[in-house]
Amino acid sequence: MCWTTVLDGAGAGRPPRRGGNSRERGKIGRSARAAEADPRGRPAVRGGEPTAGRALLVAILVFFLVGLVWLWTSARAPRASRPEPAAAPAHTAGEPQPEPAPLREPGRAPVAPDAPDAPVNGELEPFVGARTSPDDFIGPAGTVRGRVEVAGEEPFPASWTLVARPARYLPGRETAVERRLELAGGQREFVLAELPLGGYELAAEAPGFNGPPLPVLLEKRSASPYVVLHLVPAGLLEGRVLDADGVPAEGVALTLFAQQGGEAREAVTDAAGIFRFAKLPDGAYDLLIGREGAVLVPERRPLRFAAPRLTFPDIELPPLGTLEVRVVDSLERPMEGVEVRGSGSEGGLVEGRTDHDGRLVARHLPAGRYRLRLSHPALDEAYATRVAVDVVAGQVAEAPVLLGP
């Protein structure tokens, strides 16, 4: 039998009781193992007890969760407190009930009820048009002053015309009148006096230029305005004429009529079948294939031109005929310089002079009978000759003529 010495704080070196139960022997064993694990006397840490690292992780996790909760509650909180709408007053019996607010479709802004225009701080609200009355155009005549500027690199025209017309849309157009003022010598400044009050459109007109109209309102409150007008260089209209076989047609005349005013311009195709109308003002036109009174295609072709350039689609002619005139004198010598003029029963025009061989060829003529008159400047008028020739589409008609004493 052996004795074991127990070392503890109560009594060092005191021998334990002999034997002892199992619970006491277990305590003695645990104390011995603890002393072996930490010789300085601190108790050892076991796996079931929290460590300092685990406590730090738990603290970080708790802090993160608290931050998430704070962000969630902040996002759901209202940004600004709004006052509660006041309760509608109660209506007693016999009083008229207010009309309910009209329902509106989802996604559509509510429409404000109609209300008369009211001045705000002495001025009209934005986007509210000024009101005019017939009395605003009753009074002394007005005066328009201004100047004209040229856009682009074109020189200022030597002469131009200032035109004032009644406006198409402005109020007071019923009292406006049309006036024209001619200016020359490169004068840019203008004064148009003694003009009745009303709504006008002012424009500068010059050959080879466009003059955009400017609306001007002459009324009691503004009877002498100052305006700036502009002249814009006109553009070029061109196109190509082809015969029935798709070959460029040379020498075809075309006439361009302005729909407003009826002014006519003429052009003739070159060897490539190209026609050009240069320095053409903007506007609506009708294009006629041929000359007025001697058309090649009956219908006119409408177009709207705007500078700087417009190319008209290719024009294809129907099947046409050709007339060849040869003039000789009494000795059968070719006569050069004979003037030939005439027209056909179905349109078409013949005009020109014979060449050195006494010939004149007229192409692109509608089928029909042509009556021609031939004369020569060196011969007396009594020797002038008249002939009639039938022209057939797709063929060449020959007309030999003897001219002279």
Structure notes:
By secondary structure, the protein is mainly beta. It is 10% helix and 37% strand. It has helices at residues 22-37, 52-76; strands at 142-150, 159-166, 179-184, 189-195, 198-205, 209-210, 214-218, 226-233, 235-242, 253-258, 264-268, 274-280, 283-291, 294-295, 301-305, 309-311, 315-316, 321-328, 339-344, 349-353, 359-365, 368-375, 385-391, 396-402. Strands 10, 11, 13, 14 and 15 form a five-stranded antiparallel sheet that branches. Strands 4-1-8-6 form a four-stranded mixed sheet, with no helix packed on it. The radius of gyration is 53 Å and the shape is elongated. The relative contact order is 0.07. Mean pLDDT is 79; it is low at 1-22, 31-41, 43-48 and 111-129.
Structure characteristics:
single chain; 405 residues; mainly beta; 4-stranded mixed β-sheet; disordered N terminus
| Whole-angstrom Rg | 53 Å
Structural class: mainly beta
Unreliable stretches covering 5 or more consecutive residues = 1-22, 31-41, 43-48, 111-129
Overall, the morphology is elongated
Helix content: 10-25%
Assess the beta-strand content as a share of residues: 35-45%
Q: What is the chain-wise order of helices and strands? A: HHEEEEEEEEEEEEEEEEEEEEEEEE
Number of strands: 24
Assembly category:
single chain
Number of helical runs? Answer: 2
Q: What is the overall pLDDT average?
A: 79
C-alpha end-to-end distance: 183 Å
Largest sheet: 5 strands, antiparallel
